[in-house]
Amino acid sequence: MSYDVIIVGAGISGLLSAIELADSGRKICIIEKSRIGQGSSWAGGGILLPIYPWRYPEPVNTLVEWSLRHYPEFLAALCADTGIDPEWQACGHLILDADPDATVIRRWSDRFSVEIEYISGKKLNRVEPGLSQHHAGALWAPNIGQVRSPRLLKALAVKANQMKVDIQENTALTGIKTDNRTIKTIKTSNSDHTAGSVLIAAGAWSGDLEQYGLPHTAVQPVRGQMIQFQTDPGAIRTITLHKEHYVIPRKDGKVLAGSTLEHCGFDKTTTREAAQFLRQQAVSLFPMLESVPLINHWAGLRPGNDRQTPLIGRHPDYDNLFYNTGHYRNGIILGLASARLCCDIMLGRPPILAPADYAWA
Ligand SMILES: Cc1cc2nc3c(=O)[nH]c(=O)nc-3n(C[C@H](O)[C@H](O)[C@H](O)COP(=O)(O)OP(=O)(O)OC[C@H]3O[C@@H](n4cnc5c(N)ncnc54)[C@H](O)[C@@H]3O)c2cc1C
Fold first, then answer.
1. Quick one: CA torsion of 122, 127, 129, 130, rounded to 10 degrees?
2. Of 322, 360, 348, 355, which is closest to residue 13 (Cα–Cα)?
3. d(CA 11, CA 77)
4. 13 CB less than 6 Å from ligand 1?
5. pLDDT > 70 in the chain, percent
6. How far apart are CA 64 and CA 353, in angstroms?
7. What is the mean predicted confidence (pLDDT) over 60-85?
8. What is the pLDDT of residues 301-347, one digit of tens each?
9. How many other C-beta atoms can be found within 10 angstroms of the C-beta atom of residue 19?
10. Cα 61 vs. chain centroid, distance in angstroms?
């Protein structure tokens, strides 16, 4: 078959890019080696802010700012169009171990228009009554929220279908045929396709595609494990972060606690040690979780990337090869802006942000 664009990978990066490209009238195919959204995107906590965002480079925060501005409207339309509610909610975000240098945080919050304040005593207790009494104060970002990643991915898949995107599951990219600076043919485990352009959105596997003839990409898998409790709805109210670990309460009382950072290749198994550790961390924040049984434990492979800024744009050696990958811990919050920027570059539109910040070094 022949398409305007073939996208490799049906995670959040591939699906959002497909929807944006299809919206401009292009004929799009996504090839997905397993099932839609079952990569890192499904495993993600869905916090709509990087943890300790002021520690990230400016280009990451400009993507965050754009996504924060546009997600509410996008998600409302997605829910209306598909009938699937991604459960966006501005539940607020508490950070218990704020960096000692308050000026860095103030500068970041002014620069990126994120409301944040230090709270303690009665206000902290009002915001999060279930929190352990050991914590005297916290940074409080009342407008920061979350989405429920598996639901978001389901809704994106339905939307892509509505827009006539051809999504081929259980179909892996296995090779390419090139002619000078152009990719002519995409070989897959099922058949060969031709396309005007190719977009790599293969998450943690983006670097692994070198074995199929694609250029070297410094994206590596970083395993993250997460556990889930069932509490009464409202028992915990806010996304709470302490020493790199966090608790995320869903509307129906499910509470996620994450996550680990493990460099162990493409191994997605879960470990008992990680579950115990994450449980300890969660209980030290919310003592009520001590007596609550775990109902789920999973792992996902993040697209790790040493430079922290995702890779978005055209590969310098090819005229029709593009990347939208390497979002590491932040692919859900960065996803909307990244897909828009990537499609601006592919379609030759004025870009929402300066592309040079995300280009190949
Ligand atoms: C435990 C955990 C918690 C997280 N929490 C958050 C959070 O709170 N907020 C946030 O913003 N981010 C979070 N993230 C990060 C976020 O989930 C990722 O950055 C994001 O999902 C990456 O999306 P992606 O589409 O690039 O990759 P993926 O979702 O992994 O999709 C890539 C797809 O490419 C497919 N693929 C690979 N190779 C091939 C091939 N050869 N042929 C065809 N298809 C192929 C894969 O099967 C996969 O489906 C978290 C991640 C984890 C693991």
1. -140
2. 322
3. 20
4. yes
5. 100
6. 11
7. 98
8. 999 998 899 999 999 999 999 999 999 999 999 999 999 999 999 99
9. 20
10. 14
Segment 238-245 shows an average pLDDT of 96
pLDDT digits (tens, 9 = 90+) for 109-122: 999 999 999 999 89
The topology (CATH level 3) of 2-358 is: FAD/NAD(P)-binding domain (3.50.50)
In the chain, domain spans: 2-358
Distance 317 CA to ligand 1 centre (A): 25
Residue 17 near ligand 1, beta carbon < 6 Å: no
* Ligand 1: residue whose CA is nearest its atom 4: 44
Closest CA to 29 of 225, 223, 173: 173
Question: In angstroms, how far is CA 230 from the centroid of its own chain?
Answer: 24
Q: CA triplet 168, 264, 359: central angle to 5 degrees?
A: 60
Q: Which residue has the tokens 């790599």?
A: 200
Considering the entire predicted model, what is its pTM?
0.97
Query: What's the start-to-end Cα distance of the chain, in Å?
Result: 34
Residue 242 CA to ligand 1 centre (angstroms):
24
Q: Is 327 a pocket residue for ligand 1 (Cβ < 6 Å)? A: yes
Ligand 1 center–CA 25 separation, angstroms: 26
DSSP character at residue 351: P
List b or e across 331-341, with b for residues whose CB sees 16 or more CB atoms inside 10 angstroms. bbbbbbbbbbb
Q: Using the mean position of ligand 1's atoms as its centre, give its distance from the Cα of residue 149 in Å.
A: 11
Give the model's confidence band at 133: pLDDT under 50 very low, under 70 low, under 90 confident, else very high: confident
44 C-beta closer than 6 A to ligand 1: yes
Q: How far is the CA of 13 from the centre of ligand 1 (A)?
A: 8
Q: Is the dihedral of CA 93, 342, 38, 301 positive or negative?
A: negative
Q: Is the pLDDT of residue 100 over 80?
A: no
Gyration radius (Cα) of the chain, Å: 20
Question: How would you write 135-147 as a 3-class SS string?
Answer: CCEEEEECCCCEC
